[in-house]
Design goal:
This protein is mainly β. It contains one helix and ten strands; from the N terminus they run H-E-E-E-E-E-E-E-E-E-E. It starts with a helix and ends with a strand.
């Protein structure tokens, strides 16, 4: 999964868990990524200002216009799993308040975020 796609997934899952923000801090890139838009349980329509692209869909099926690929997402309480069709790789993660951790099977690495 590309770094900004991961950050957008972290932002989306945190917002779906009840947190609101206008950016996500990506510890692996040591910087904030500005994201705006609407996220609720039925519709996701966000804009990644870093890549100048939208990510839209539902809470279970997203489309990343920056990568021209779907992202499957399944949120279950504070845990989530998914699949990135751009890189053909699985990921999973957890949400703890305003912190999100994602394990990306493509890179076999944990990535941490805060919103």
């Amino acid at each position: 999964m590309t770094p900004n796609s991961r950050a957008c997934v972290a932002y989306t899952t945190a917002c779906l868990s009840g947190n609101a923000a206008s950016s996500v801090y990506d510890y692996s890139q040591s910087r904030y990524i500005n994201i705006s838009g609407t996220i609720n349980q039925t519709t996701i329509n966000i804009y990644d200002h870093d890549r100048n692209c939208y990510i839209t869909g539902t809470s279970s099926s997203l489309y990343d216009y920056g990568n021209s690929a779907h992202i499957q997402l399944s949120l279950n309480g504070s845990q989530f799993t998914g699949y990135d069709y751009h890189t053909s790789s699985h990921f999973n993660g957890s949400i703890n308040g305003r912190s999100v951790s994602i394990y990306d099977y493509e890179t076999s690495t944990y990535y941490n975020y805060s919103i």
